[in-house]
Amino acid sequence: MINAIIILGSIGFFIYYLKGLKNTKFTTKTVVMIGMFSAISYILSMIEFIKYPQGGGISLFSMLPTMLLSVLFGNTVGITGGLIYGVLKLLKGVYIIHPAQFLLDYILPTMLLGLAGSFGKDKKSKVILGCLFAVVLSVSMNIISGCVFFGDYAPEGMNVFVYSFLYNVSSQGVEGLLSALIIGILPLERLNRAINLSSN
């Protein structure tokens, strides 16, 4: 039952994404930016400071480029970058026990980072809030996956949700929080001007 709910929720998110694609004009510059930011995310993901035994860990701000892409170009572009980044991560190896688990661990977390631009970019507070919103959604996918599919790894006597929460928040959550804070102190207006000038 839970697997069906996960897949139906994923379909709903993909429908939202496809509607956004229909209303978004992809210029050559945008396509290049998506490719570049996705590649940077993948490269950063290979620089791991801490690697957990059952997968995951803390890398060199691999979430940051996807969220920044969303803040600068909008959610649809950000989600597209997240999708490409997720596909690139498959090159590092995959462990699949169910289609729902595959979506929760490898596709949805990176795509949801593309929602970082949800609250706009006119104020730093909105940018940080949007990034934190995206991080919470992204990490939630990993937490759900841990609860549903990897509960056997929880230490004896520990609640499965508590185990999955601590495991994922202490890795992806920490990295996402630091990435959001860095985006919050970046000179976004200057970046916007530079991007707009390069398109002229």
From TrEMBL:
- Which GO terms of the cellular component aspect does the record hold? plasma membrane
Q: Which N-terminal residues, if any, form the signal peptide?
A: none
Q: Which Gene Ontology terms cover its molecular function?
A: thiamine transmembrane transporter activity
From the record, give the transmembrane residue ranges: 30-50, 62-88, 94-115, 127-151, 171-188
Per UniProt, the keywords (alphabetical) are: Membrane, Transmembrane, Transmembrane helix
**In its UniProt entry, what is this protein called?**
Energy-coupled thiamine transporter ThiT
Q: Which organism is it from?
A: Paraclostridium bifermentans
